[in-house]
Amino acid sequence: MPIHHVLSTLPPLPDRIKRLPVDARGYPVPYFVTWLDEQGRACPNGQGKPDFRVVTAQRIAQCVREKRCWICGETLGAYKSFVIGPMCAVNRISAEPPQHLECADFAARACPFLVNPTQHRREKGLPEGHRDAAGVMIRRNPGVALIYTTRSFNVFRADDRGVLFELGDPHSVRWYCEGRTATRAEVMASIDGGLPILLAEAEAEGPYAVACLNEMMARAITLVPPRNASDACA
Questions:
Q1: 126 assigned to some structural domain
Q2: What residues make up the domain containing 216?
Q3: Which of 50, 70, 103, 230 would be 97's cystine partner, CB 3.0–4.6 Å?
Q4: Is residue 196 part of a domain?
């Protein structure tokens, strides 16, 4: 495999990230990424080209079973971090396994989709047979990302596409927007933009689901950054 140099505009790489292979653009390639040959077939890591949109399905089970980080592939400690959007902060559900805090922090500040709110999910040219992650995917770019760190989580099968992760109570939270710390106004704008989607689903299920959503929203608001001077100018 050719040796590529890390993109100079990326945030400083944690030691675990430094041990990952680097693609032709200069991005470290996470542990979960599938490498594809010219025909779009999966091949061993380091051969072909990495497609960051395609998850190696076996890695989900391996990360859970062996308590490995989703990003770097190394063993996790007592605390587990998840990079999620604001709507996942409401229901405390993630479609991705946990990561080290420093790996999650790097991803939130380096991933082009998370750093650029105008970036859309690229779906053209996905390999044949590719499927979305389990659960209901909200395809919008939320504009902000939350690093949700907890000591506990539960794994459950959502549908025939795989499992989801129910997050325990938070130990700490970090909000990011465009690769920097997000303001309360930015987080609230993202929540307000996504809430109608969750509300429509709850209303379709009935009054009890709406009441549950209201309770989850109240709980999620406690995780939002406090109001500060920068919000007054937003």
A1: no
A2: 15-118+132-224
A3: 70
A4: yes
pTM (predicted TM-score): 0.84
First CA to last CA distance, the chain: 47
Token pair of 109, please?
């500040």
The answer to whether residue 77 sits within a structural domain is yes
Name the domain count of the chain.
Answer: 1
* Domain assignment present for 123: no
- What angle in degrees, to the nearest 10, is found between the helix axes of 207-221 and 184-205? 170
pLDDT tens-place string over residues 123-164: 555 555 555 554 455 556 788 999 999 999 999 987 776 889
**How far is the C-alpha of 35 from the C-alpha of 46, rounded, in Å?**
7
